[in-house]
Amino acid sequence: MSDPVFFSANASLSLGAVAEAAGLSLPEGADPALVLTGAAPLESAGPADLAYMDNARYGDALAATRAAVCLVSPRFAARVPATTVALVTRDPYRIYAALLARLHPDAMRPASLFGSRGVSPGAHVHPDARLEENVQVDPGATIGPGAEVGSGSVIGPGAAIGPNVRIGRDCSVGAGATLTHALVGNRVIVHPGARIGQDGFGFAMGASHIKVPQIGRVIVQDDVEIGANTTIDRGASRDTVIGEGTKIDNLVQIAHNVVIGRHCVIVSGVGISGSTTLEDYVVLGGQVGVVGHLRIGRGSQIAGSSNVNKDVPPGSRWGGTPAKPVRAWFRELTTLARLAERSGKGERDESAD
């Protein structure tokens, strides 16, 4: 069996270009013309590779690396081997990410899986749909009447774009994803299997449950990324909104009328109930559950596996079930651990008698 390389470097970078892009000065004696042709982890990097290091766990790997250049935080700079050029920065990971994007631009967003240009054979584009120039539509994709897709966007195989949906420019819609009742901005990435714009879960409860028509939309602003198999329900009467620059992991459920601010981070397994608002820069750890009609304030962070059942003030760090400020949560955990330890000692003492 052959061993394909899915992301070969599309460019090379000189050490001088790396330093300039990072806003860093080269160490004395470093050759600015040194050519870097790839990036790799510390332990496998070779003499033409760029690496980075900002975690104490990898101190031994740093000391033994063969990388040509290493972006490294100040506290670890002394461990860089003499054969490796150390570029010292307080944020090596962000700089590494930016340089990696220059080496591997094809990895920045999903491309056509069929590899053709324009509308592929086997795709179904309604005559009343409007596609700008340089749109790629893979086999099996369906684009409904009145839908619009902007230039540079890619619609993956088996994806379904509903009637009158708007998709901006330079977007990627992954294989098997569905978008209905949605307005999508520019440079949005929707990974395979995501479901956007379906009914919210709305019923008037009683002896028999009456379905409440969901007549809102989903608004996805620019530069949002939505993970595989994530679901975003359309609004009941208001719109469900995902703010600019927000990043959503795989397997997240966002219910009707939810409003998510700009540049939020929502990790895998999160569930957000209806009509809740996340202000800008909120971070929800994996498997967080948020009940409906709450507000989580700007810049707040919720620890993984927590359950949020009341409003969270701006700038807070909460955790636990039910979630509370982390100091109170840690005190509870410490107290419970001490009680359990005492109880265990008592049981051992009784068994000794």
TrEMBL record:
GO CC, alphabetical: membrane
EC assignment: 2.3.1.191
Molecular-function GO term, any one: UDP-3-O-[(3R)-3-hydroxyacyl]-glucosamine N-acyltransferase activity
UniProt KW keywords: Acyltransferase, Lipid A biosynthesis, Lipid biosynthesis, Lipid metabolism, Repeat, Transferase
Transmembrane segments: none
Domain UDP-3-O-[3-hydroxymyristoyl] glucosamine N-acyltransferase non-repeat region: 34-101
GO biological process: lipid A biosynthetic process
Active site: H256
Subunit structure: Homotrimer.
Family per record: Belongs to the transferase hexapeptide repeat family. LpxD subfamily.
Function: Catalyzes the N-acylation of UDP-3-O-acylglucosamine using 3-hydroxyacyl-ACP as the acyl donor. Is involved in the biosynthesis of lipid A, a phosphorylated glycolipid that anchors the lipopolysaccharide to the outer membrane of the cell.
HAMAP family: LpxD
Protein name, entry field: UDP-3-O-acylglucosamine N-acyltransferase
Organism: Methylobacterium oxalidis
Lineage per the UniProt record: Bacteria, Pseudomonadati, Pseudomonadota, Alphaproteobacteria, Hyphomicrobiales
